[in-house]
Amino acid sequence: MLVMGIDPGLSRCGYGVVRQKGRVVEAMAAGIIRTDKREPIPRRLHEFQNELVELLDAYRPDAVAIEQVLFQVNVRTAMGVGQASGVAMAAAVGAGAEVFEYSPTQIKKAVTGWGGADKEQMGKMVQTLLGLPRPLRPADAADAVAAALCHLAHRPAASRIQAAM
Amino acid sequence: MLVMGIDPGLSRCGYGVVRQKGRVVEAMAAGIIRTDKREPIPRRLHEFQNELVELLDAYRPDAVAIEQVLFQVNVRTAMGVGQASGVAMAAAVGAGAEVFEYSPTQIKKAVTGWGGADKEQMGKMVQTLLGLPRPLRPADAADAVAAALCHLAHRPAASRIQAAM
After folding, report:
1. Disulfide engineering: A17 pairs with which of A29, A111, B88, B103, CB 3.0-4.6 Å?
2. What is the pTM of this model?
């Protein structure tokens, strides 16, 4: 079971790929897709799409877990995040993955046991769960991995039983 | 000069293709892309992307004019429109078109001369400007054509001079 987590954003989009085999979960890749703020938004969305499609082609995840966009104070930023999440969802379906959305609170709760956890706690738990020597950097990559881990924790018991048979 | 106008939306997305040759503007196509509300959003975004890419391939517009997403009362709807507009922008750049965004007020002003024009006035003016026997239906298709006409009215004088030479 291969899951790609995505923390959507137009300036910085975190991604993380984890593999679960039996009870072992390991990190396969994590990083950031950036686009140039000086470019027009349509061009940035296209560039983001190209980079994401390349990653999806390279890893072929069974599922993609996307952090849900919440409306922040800055409406301009929220719109960019929404547009990027739309591009990411369409690309993930196009690559044959099942797509799931999780709220920031769901992700925090799944990873740390508490919906109000801060960035540092999240980073530490991602590190612990994956048995990494040090916290993942940058934080957006750790957030994306957390979304993937959240999906592994949430996917229906049925599919886990099937996978074990 | 071929321009595709897009009135983005996930449930119904209007599109309209117009061609300007000298002082004559004619409609080449107009319609709606619909996606099934019962399907999950990522699947609908992917389907929307596929249909739009087909239209872009068929008409190869020089420019795509997209109506800007404004935040409405219904945040859920605004997010769907934002996601669809992101997919549309990335697809248009991928098809080699230049992409431009216009606010609803800019579009109304360009087509009727007044930023507060209502749907009926807009429909009538689109009909008149294109010399159509009756108003375009549905209204989303007329709105998309209006976005394309707005682009023709706004594009820099320089490119119009160049086109005339």
Report:
1. A29
2. 0.89
